[in-house]
Q: What sequence folds into this?
């Protein structure tokens, strides 16, 4: 509360917010910092809480991005939403995804090749039957006649999976059972 006294030459005091009866105890740490504005008038102090400002960058909401993107076909949207259900450290196959979507593995692969949200929408978590790497970024695992093929992109795919905890055998196949828990 602000105390004003007359005459104006007499100093007035403004207590700290902790002295005010309207003081709220601190909240537990969070990623946002509330802003408080103090407005002094003749006899009172008013506090207003404004919107919070985030102190940490927020990841994109991929579900919203997928739904609102005008250049993505309805089938591609289904494929990308299905990708979001595969947990980090897991993988699935083109065949399992296509069975769930009642489609073909090639159609799923074509949709993944066009994924504009990678790696946030994790197409790298989809492998060929037999847990081999298959393709990535439109490239396949064999070299083309001109010497340009999918070798570098497959190294990238394997590294993304390794960082998430997927293990590979000496032939480059992922170890474990493919994810089947699609929603």
A:
């Amino acid at each position: 509360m602000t105390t004003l006294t007359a005459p104006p030459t007499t100093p007035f005091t403004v207590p700290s917010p902790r002295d005010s009866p309207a003081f709220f105890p601190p909240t537990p740490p969070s990623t946002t910092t509330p802003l408080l504005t103090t407005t002094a008038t003749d006899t009172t102090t008013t506090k207003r809480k404004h919107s919070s400002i985030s102190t940490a960058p927020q990841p994109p909401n991929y579900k919203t991005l997928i739904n609102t993107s005008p250049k993505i076909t309805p089938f591609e949207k289904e494929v990308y939403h299905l990708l979001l259900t595969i947990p980090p450290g897991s993988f699935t196959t083109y065949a399992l995804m296509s069975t769930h979507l009642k489609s073909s593995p090639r159609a799923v692969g074509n949709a993944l090749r066009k994924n504009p949200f990678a790696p946030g929408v994790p197409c790298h978590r989809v492998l060929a039957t037999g847990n081999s790497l298959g393709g990535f970024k439109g490239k396949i695992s064999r070299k083309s006649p001109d010497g340009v093929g999918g070798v570098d992109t497959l190294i990238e795919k394997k590294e993304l999976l390794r960082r998430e905890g997927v293990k590979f055998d000496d032939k480059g196949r992922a170890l474990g059972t493919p994810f089947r828990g699609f929603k």
Summary: The beta strands are 32-33, 36-40, 45-49, 53-54, 92-93, 126-127. The mean pLDDT is 77.
